[in-house]
Write a structure and sequence with these properties.
CATH class: Alpha Beta
Oligomer: single chain
Number of helices: 5
Helix content: 40-55%
């Protein structure tokens, strides 16, 4: 499956870049994952592939467990994707406008806190790796 992470902003810090590289390396055994850095929300919307299943990270989104993310988002996309890429969108400092929220099939929150986009990106990649380990019954995730 192809997963695309569209992120507004850049990873400038070496420790965040190293963490991203670590999780992308782990994920390559499960899916083709690409991260694209974009300048702003209009560029993000323009970069969406046709028929993409968009999940926008948003503090008002659904609160899901790691197991829910595995089954309801990653597992469902693998079963019913039909070649459509699964796209996760990470907004900038001001979050998303109604245009992106309405385009998204799902809004996902990592709690009711506001996270810096750089940290949200690492958490997303870790959760994707965790989702695949859950779906494959591997020992990384502990219930």
């Amino acid at each position: 499956m192809k997963i695309l992470v569209l992120a507004i902003g850049r990873l400038k810090e070496a420790h965040f870049a190293a963490a991203e590289a670590e999780y992308l390396g782990r994920l390559k055994h499960y899916a083709q994952v690409e991260v694209r850095e974009l300048k702003d929300e209009p560029a993000l919307l323009a970069a969406l592939p046709a028929r993409a299943k968009l999940v926008a990270l948003d503090e008002t989104g659904e609160l899901l467990t790691s197991a829910d993310i595995a089954r309801k988002i990653v597992g469902a996309a693998e079963q019913h994707g039909g070649g459509a890429p699964l796209v996760f969108a990470i907004g900038g400092a001001d979050g998303f406008t109604a245009a992106t929220r309405s385009r998204a099939e799902r809004l996902l929150a990592f709690g009711r806190i506001t996270l810096p986009h750089r940290l949200a990106r690492i958490i997303l990649l870790e959760q994707l790796y965790r989702a695949y380990s859950i779906l494959r019954g591997e020992p990384y995730h502990r219930s």
